[in-house]
Design goal:
The chain is built from 5 helices and 8 strands, in the order αβαβαβββαβαββ. It is α/β, with parallel strands linked by helices.
Length: 154
């Protein structure tokens, strides 16, 4: 537990950083999509659209305590610390998309997955911090009560 006690502070810092980037992009008159590094980087908006359509399988590669604290509705937990690329269902019906807190671990998972399986996938660029910055819905724990807050939408 102690290891993750700083998670809410880190999340606020990451969120402020992502918001500052978004503000700079808007000031420059550019869309987020123009700054994505490659075709494997997805925006929160495109992930949400594909989740709603049932076109992707969203895999959260954070650790269980992070996932329990806050997660994207519909995401499945498969921590990077126990990552096994060949364990994912790859029937071709849904594209696999990885996500984490900031995008670093999900990019590592993506690279590992594609190297091991030869199957194209993607990741949520900026992770759940970018997701929250884009005001997309999350399931989270209420710190005051410990209750799960879930509006049941995505």
């Amino acid at each position: 537990f102690r290891k993750y006690a700083i998670l809410p502070i880190w999340s606020d810092r990451a969120l402020r950083y992502i918001k500052s980037l978004n503000a700079r992009w808007r000031q420059a008159g550019l869309a987020e999509e123009e700054f994505m590094a490659d075709k494997y980087d997805l925006t929160p908006q495109s992930v949400l659209k594909d989740l709603r359509a049932g076109e992707i399988l969203l895999i959260d590669v954070r650790e269980p305590a992070e996932f329990a604290n806050e997660r994207i509705h519909g995401a499945l937990l498969h921590p990077l610390s126990t990552f096994e690329p060949k364990a994912f269902p790859t029937d071709g019906n849904r594209r696999i998309v990885f996500q984490c807190g900031s995008g670093k671990r999900s990019r590592m998972a993506l690279n590992n997955f594609m190297k091991e399986t030869g199957i194209e996938a993607a990741h949520l660029a900026g992770g759940i911090a970018a997701w929250k910055s884009a005001r997309q819905p999350c399931i989270r724990l209420d710190p005051a009560t410990g209750a799960i807050v879930d509006k049941g939408d995505y």
